[in-house]
Every structure is written in C-alpha cells, then in structure tokens.
Amino acid sequence: MPDLLLELFSEEIPARMQAKAADDLRRMVTDKLVAEGLVYEGAKAFATPRRLALTVHGIPARQPDLKTERRGPKMGAPDAAVQGFLKATGLNSLDEAKIQRDPKGDFYIALIEKPGRDAIDVLAEILPVIIRTFPWPRSMRWGARSGKPGSLSWVRPLHAITATFGPETEEPDVVKFSVDGIETGQTTYGHRFMAPAAINVRRFEDYEAKLKAAKVILDPEARKDIIFADAKELTFAQGFELVEDQVLLDEVSGLVEWPVVMMGSFEPEYLAIPEEVIRATIRNNQKCFVVRDAKTGKLTNKFVLTANIEAADGGKTIVAGNERVIRPRLSDAKFFYETDLKTKLEDRLPKFEQIVFHEKLGTQAERIKRIERLAAEIAPLVGADVAKATRAAHLAKADLLTEVVGEFPEVQGLMGKYYALAQGEDASVAAACEEHYKPQGPADRVPTDSVSVAVALADKVDTLVGFWAIDEKPTGSKDPYALRRAALGVIRLIAENNLRLSLMKVAASAFAGLSVKSADAEKLPSDLLAFFADRLKVQLREQGARHDLVDAVFALGGQDDLLMIVRRVEALGKFLESDDGKNLLAGIKRAGNILGIEEKKDKRAFDGAPDAALYGLDEEKALAKAIGEVQAEAGAAVAKEDFAAAMSAMAKLRPPVDAFFEKVRVNDDDPKVRENRLKLLNEIRSATRAVADFSKIQD
After folding, report:
1. Which phi and psi angles does 107 have, rounded to 5°?
2. Where are the beta strands (DSSP E) in 281-395?
3. Considering 161, 434, 580, 639, which has the largest number of Cβ atoms within 10 A of its Cβ?
4. Closest-CA residue to 504 (of 512, 514, 496)
C-alpha cells in the first residue's frame, strides 16, 4: 500500500512550538484521511528548527465506492418537493427511485452510488487546506506580490513543500498542489551552513537518510539522545557531572539540526553566587547546562553548550562567544545578589503597603499580616514554635522585592532562604521562607519542618478562603489563581505529615481575618470543604485509588479531618477488595434498592427500631443480633480510629445478610411483618453508616 511523505520547509520555527506543531500536523492529516475513507496503518511526525515532516504509511491507493440511500418526499407530494429531491440526488425521474413503505406513508428513496477517487487526488485536495488552516500560536504573512503581502499565514516564511505518494516498489508520484505560489515537489535542503544544497527525495526512508548525510537529524528524540549522551560523556571525562535538565534539553534539541556538544568556562569568582542563580543565569540567557564536581557535588565554573555546526576550529570561536555573553550576565547576577544582601528582609516590607494583592483582598502587606496571624494559630496544631512560625510568615514574601528575584522569578522563596540565613535568622525560619510555596505540584517535595508546614498551610488557606469569599472560584478549565493547586498542596501537607487538624476551624479562622465579608459567610467553610473533597478525589484517582470511596466517607457529614478521611478511605478500599467486602456491598446495595422502591411506593421512611416480637424466622433474628453486635463493635473501633478493626467488624454482617436475602421474603403479605422487615433492612443501612455511606460506592 502507498505511503505519504510530506515536508514543510521554512525559516526557523521557535523551539517551544515544534512538538505541538508536529503533533497537530499528524492529527490533522490523519483525521482528514479517515474522514475520506482512507484508513491508514501508521503515522509519525517530526520537527527540526527548519521543517515539519510527516510520514503516513499503509494508505489505500483509492477510496472505497460509497452507496447511500437518501429519503425523499412522500408519494403524491407537491411537484416542487419532487423536483428538489431529483436535483439533490441527481436522478432524472422518479422512475429511477424506489418506494419504501412506512406507517406514515410511502416515500421515495434514491440509491446514490459515489465512486471512490484516487488517494493522491484526495491528498491534493486536503493538504493545502490543512496548510492554510494550520493552528500556529503566532504566524506571519510575507512575500509581497504586486504590492500586496502573500495570502499564507505561517509561523515563519515557508520556502518549499515536499509531497510524495506511492508504494515502496515503485517511483512515488508528487502530490501536486500549490500554496501561495509554492509548488509541491521532491526537493528539500540540508543543514543551513554545512550542506545547504538542494536534495531530491523519494519516500521517507530515502528522505531521512539523505537528510542525515546532509547534517540534519530529523527525529527530535534522536537529537535529545545525542545531546544528553555527549554532554554526559564530555563532563565525565573531565571528572564532572552534568546537572540534568529535561526542560532545557527539550528546548535545546529544538534549536539545532546537527547537535555538537562543547564545554566552556567562567571565572571562579562567580561561584560565590548561590548555585541556583548561576544556573538560572546560564540556562535562561544562553540555553546552556551547568556542571557539578563529581567528588564534592558542588557547582563548578564550567558549562555545556550545544552548537548547530561542526566548526573548522573545533568550536573554539563558538565557546569563546558564549563565554563572552555569560560573563557579563554573571557579573550582573553577582551585583544584584551583593546589593540585595545590603538590605534586611524586614526593611523591604513597607513597600508591600503600596502593592495590591487583589483589589477586593487588599495589599500584599495586609495579606502578610493575615498569614502571620493564621500561621501563629496553626503552629500549635502542627507542633511548630509559634514565635518562629510568626517570624517566618512575616519575612516569607520579602524576597519578592529583591533584585535577584526581579530578574529570575523562578528563584523566589529560595532567595528568601539565602537572605534570611545571611542576616542570622533561625534555620527553620529561613527554610520556611523557601518552603512555604511548596508543594507546587504533584511531583514537588512536601515540607516536613513544622515551621515550614505552618506557614505553607497559612499561605494556601488564606489564598483559598480569600478567593472563595469574593466568589472567584475555579470554573471549568479556568483557574487563574491556581486554587486547585493550593488545595492539593494543603491535602499533601496534611496527609504526608500525618497532621490532625480541623479544616473547617482553620478556614473559619482565616475568614475571620478578612476585611471583605461574603454574603454566604456561614456556607463558606463547608463549601470550601466540598472543594477539598473534589481535590482529594483527584489525588486518589491519580494514585490509582477509588475516588468514589471519598464520596462514601464525606457523605457521613462532619468530616473535615483530612488525615482520618484518607485513612478511612484506605481501609475501606482494602475491605472492598476482599470477598467479604464485595459480597457485603452487594447485600447493602440490595437492601438500599428495596428500601428505595418501597419508601417511594409508601411515601414514607421505614426508620425506627424493628419489633423483635414480629421476627418469625431464624434468619431475621440472626440478622438483628448481628446488626446490634456489629454496630457496637464498628462504632467503638471508629471511635478509636482503628478503621481496619471497623472493617473486620463489618465483615461479620456478610453471612446473616446473605442468609436473610436467601430465606426471607421482605414484602410479606402481613403488612406489619413487611414493615418490620423493611425496618430491619434500614438497620443494615444505619449500621454500615458507622463506616461509610455504601450507597455512594460504585459497584
């Protein structure tokens, strides 16, 4: 079956756009092929700084013929309707239609046969449309013709389009079309400097091999592998270690077509700057990797760069050029750092009185005071020193006004720690200046120092309560204030540090410190708790746990101790994996279904204790006895927070519940017996609610 090769050759595509562009090209072409009835076997897209390429193999040479039926008007319909039907279907007269009988009448049916077209003709039709409608984040027009710019919008000027189609055993044909005067062909170009001559290509294997010979590595993953392996080897050979950086590696691989790894250096005096600032300077400005000493683990005055050319002088000029640029950048960073050290963190705080955090939530200075107060309240709950937690909250945001953080926002918090240590602050206070932002994502580290935990919780809870109070909650995919991340941070801080605290009380305290008052002040803490429940479900789902169990536990009400909720969910999950758990859940569900039907029928609830005198069968008596025992045992276990024991107690219900449904007819002819048995079913539901609301659990 034939294969397609498509290449769009242009000026340099920004590295950040390449991966998505390649994926968009693959998706758009393959979606169109499938829509046209051309089901392919496989497709893969590639990107380099100067080209997007796509290979699709196993495309049928021709579309299948299509036969469709089109329903027309009723027999005896007005002539205008008949003529419209004939015109739409291409029939010459109603004699060419068939009649379909229907309860509503007899209708004309046209049988329409549409012969399939050659795949190459379909490609010639769909590819220019895809090119013209390609979803670049930013694009430009160029190529003035008759005083007017070209009609094509593309990320950078497009120079050539290669499009071939054909089976492996034959010479492929060019898919002929043009876009804004650019005619398709079989010509591409190699490396801009080392092999700029035109290259004639046939199909993908030929194309990839010829590009490699012309100093272009087509596959981005292959370029990454080369850069990473060569950088590791180069640093290892000199007794160093590469500081790995996947994000930078992704970006650098999009800047070169023929990666050549080299090493440069800078003056040792700059190592007096914090390592993170050196890394940010070299990474952000020159897209270079930093290097550690293999023995000490400390940063060295070396860096690794990736060139796009094999230079005649072995890269000496390229290395020297990078060193010339990095040197003044590091000099600036050193100046910023030394300047920052001259001003104490607390002396910067008055400026926050002029900086608005949010128009409805006041200034940054007001927010810092709220965090201080809340951190002092949380500190005893997490085992932190109140004075240290208050001091840390007081200083935690001060580094936002420093020169270094102004230049490199990604080191906020971290610089606060360095500056706090430099001015003699307690180690826990300094650590909290950095760690109060954490965790910022599922892979981020969770602070364990109690002072850091207190300030981190205060910071996140103040954010959540504040935006809840002014009704700026996340909606759909929009979460401009990162409130979902803040809630997940609170959950991880509590769960991973085994903290016992009431979220409702902490939220209420945070709300009391706000100058703005919500119209739904009474509902705010419980509404926020429901948001935490949703975030907890997301986290459990990501960990492979059953998120429906969170609903089963939260449905009991009054549950705002997240640590106990997590432990109860874990115990419930293990119980439901056992045979006893699965069978008991089925029995409880059956009881709930029967009760639901009968309560709806009778328009009443069957609550209240059953009458033991009405038990006529041993199975009823056994179930009633088991319910009483399990209720007491499970309740006592839950009170002691021994959820495993509570589940073991629940398991004792399984045999009598199974026997009851096997031997007992709930809807007895005697109304009193029926009511009593329904009350007994309700007792099952009530007993199990000591652990969870089993009706919320999915089968």
Report:
1. -120, 150
2. 289-293, 299-307, 356-358, 362-363
3. 161
4. 512
